[in-house]
Structures are given as C-alpha cells and as structure tokens.
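Notes from the 1:1 (GR / supervisor)

We went over the backlog. Supervisor wanted to see one worked example end to end before approving the batch request, so GR pasted a single chain during the call. The sequence is below; no edits were made to it. Supervisor asked that the structure be written out right there so they could see what the output format looks like.
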Amino acid sequence: MGISHTTDQTFKKDIQSGLTLVDFWVPWCGPCRMIAPVLDELDQEMGGEAKITKLNVDENPATARAFGVMSIPTLILFKDGKPIDTVTGVQSKNALKEMISKHK
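Structure output shown during the call:
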C-alpha cells in the first residue's frame, strides 16, 4: 500500500475511513528515524488492514496540537476518523501489529 504523508489541510480526509496509524514525527528526531523501517515493514505486512501515514509536526503543528502530541514519535491509531489508541516512543513491529489487530 505504501506509507503516505498527511498535512493539517488533508488530515481529516486522510483518516476518515477504516484504520489509519498516524506517525507524528520530525526529520531531525533520532527515535523517529529508528521507527521508520519498522513502519515500512508493518506496512508491507499489514497494508491491507490499516493505512499508515506520517505527519511532520514541525510543518503541521495544528493537528499535533489538536491531539495533544507533546513528544515524538507519537503514533495514534484512528478508526473512521476517531482516535482509538496511542503509543509514544519507539515501538516494536509486534507491538504495533497487536495494537492494530485488536481494533480490526
């Protein structure tokens, strides 16, 4: 499916249907770079079950503020536009798979 990127302007449309895992990140964040390959693998394995999109919080502060994102990386799982689960910091692929699977 491929990991997409979202912005303050497109965010609502990008998360409106199905399961969407949003990675709140910035390019200069070491842990954000560490989780990127995990998200790539997750997308290859579970792309049909959940979309993965990234939101650069430096470029899109309004959405990050709206969801109370204070530290990065923060990953929020949305179902049909509503936040249903949140984790902060680097996560294992299995932990993220479990998070998605329990909300299918």
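Supervisor's comment: Strands lie at 4-5, 19-25, 51-56, 74-79, 82-88.
Batch request approved.
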